[in-house]
Design brief:
73% of the residues lie in helices and 0% in strands. It is mostly helical and 259 residues long.
Length: 259
Amino acid sequence: MPNVTSVPTVSDSKRAFYAAYTRPINPLYRRVVEELLVEIHLLSVNTSFVYDPLFALGVVTAFDSFMSSYRPIEAVGPLFTALTQAVRQNPDQYRHDANAIAEQVKGIGSDTIRQWLTDAEALNGAPDLVRNGFQSIAGRSEFKYSRLFAIGLFSLLESAAPDLVQDNDALKATVTAIAERFHLPSEKLLKDLELYRSNLEKMEQARITMEEAIQADRRKREQREQEKLAKAAAAEAPALEAASENPEPAEPETSETPS
């Protein structure tokens, strides 16, 4: 009977995560973490999936973007470690590879990054991580597209040319050209990027709303405390007034008789 390797389930990954990270997670962010965990899990057990630095950049960008306002800030690192290890991935490798590929294109400009990613010959002159990553995509008969790949591509373009990702028409034209070059689902890619940016805005709005609610609750507590102190002071006032109107008689002075 052949040996069958047991494929971990989503439940296995969730149990591993919560065993590694035992502190409470802010409800606003718990859903984000769990959805990212499930997404990475399902990709990692897919036979067509191949890890590369661009995917790592997508994972790191998505996590950091959604968790940028998480408090306490000291919990963000352990959360990422628990998340990646729960899906049998190396957090240090993800961070290293994501930073490395983003650094290789930092500030090169929209014309250069567009030429590298839309022209096969120009790609040969790209930095090694960019060249090897996209040549690998082009050479695969089955490339496992994912939302995290789309976020990685967006982050790569943002690192190369921040002005490019701020111009919706230019971004759409560039992403469409890249999709055609590497036979990627352009409509889905654009939709995933639009959804990602929209979710970031919603996350920020939710954070602001939550912060305003916390501040309002703090002000109410402070007001109640001030009212409590005022009532206590008002209750003590009559006694203090009576004491000031009827002071206790002074102790008679005693004089010493000379011997």
